[in-house]
Amino acid sequence: MSDDVPQEISEGVTKITDTKSDNHTVFVGPKPFMNYVTGVVMQFTTQSANEVVVKARGRFISRAVDIVEVATKRFLEGQIEIARDGIKVGSEEFENKEGKQVRVSYIELSLIRKN
Amino acid sequence: MSDDVPQEISEGVTKITDTKSDNHTVFVGPKPFMNYVTGVVMQFTTQSANEVVVKARGRFISRAVDIVEVATKRFLEGQIEIARDGIKVGSEEFENKEGKQVRVSYIELSLIRKN
Q1: Superfamily of domain A4-113
Q2: A60: which DSSP letter?
Q3: Which pLDDT band, with edges at 50, 70 and 90, does B28 fall under?
Q4: Are B22 and B5 in contact, with CB atoms under 8 Å apart?
Q5: Quick check: B12 pLDDT over 70?
Q6: Listed residue (A77, A104, A88) closest to A10, CA to CA
Q7: Cys staple from B86: which of A21, A94, A105, B110, with CB 3.0 to 4.6 Å?
Q8: DSSP, residue by residue, A3-39
């Protein structure tokens, strides 16, 4: 189930969510782990974001949690946290290349500045 | 990071959380996917649980989300849901076999009966 997410769908989601200009989103995929951690940290530090949403699908869900933990516990410890009600999980059904209905799970983790 | 969870630690967690007699917990590991889905469903149906917590560490986090989605959207659709504030993520540091400090992420998803 998890390995069945076509890349074009992941990219589609990123594009849709990025149309909101105030929306700081990091979409987790197969690039090196630290790319995503840096992406999150930089949005808070150099881009002055107040909220950064880390999204992932399928097998990248575990990675998204790792990235959030490293960002909050190591790089920006004491400065950012997971928002209250800031974790959502869900799933979407779509048709894969073989015409089969498959369900893919996703996670969204919302990080905010600590007061 | 994700693949560094020794099995004995995963099992330890299950044992600790299961000491509370009213606690229905499913700890996700490498067994066949449907074992865990059945585990969740059975606790609601044959064991009359009001809450079942699905826990996972490291790379099994993605699986835990898949299991919760299949249980809520397919097997017990309309009957159970993720509790409000029912998703927790976090991480723990521990020393691995080589004496190195490693951090492992975890997720806990709390499922309840729908009203």
Answers
A1: Alba-like domain (3.30.110.20)
A2: G
A3: very high
A4: no
A5: no
A6: A104
A7: B110
A8: GG--HHHHHHHHHHHHTSTT-EEEE--SS-HHHHHHH
- Here the tokens at position B59 are 């790379």
Q: Where are the domains of chain A?
A: 4-113
Closest-CA residue in chain A for B67? A105
pLDDT tens-place string over residues B43-97: 999 999 999 999 999 999 999 999 999 999 999 999 999 999 999 999 988 888 9
Distance, CA of B10 to CA of B57 (rounded, Å) = 7
pTM: predicted TM-score of the whole model, two decimal places: 0.80
Q: What angle do CA A30, A84, A59 make, to 5 degrees?
A: 20
Tell me which residues of chain A have a C-beta less than 8 Å from any C-beta of chain B: 1-2, 33, 58-63, 65-66, 68-70, 73, 82, 84-85, 87-91, 103, 105-107, 109
Q: What is the pLDDT of residue B19?
A: 41
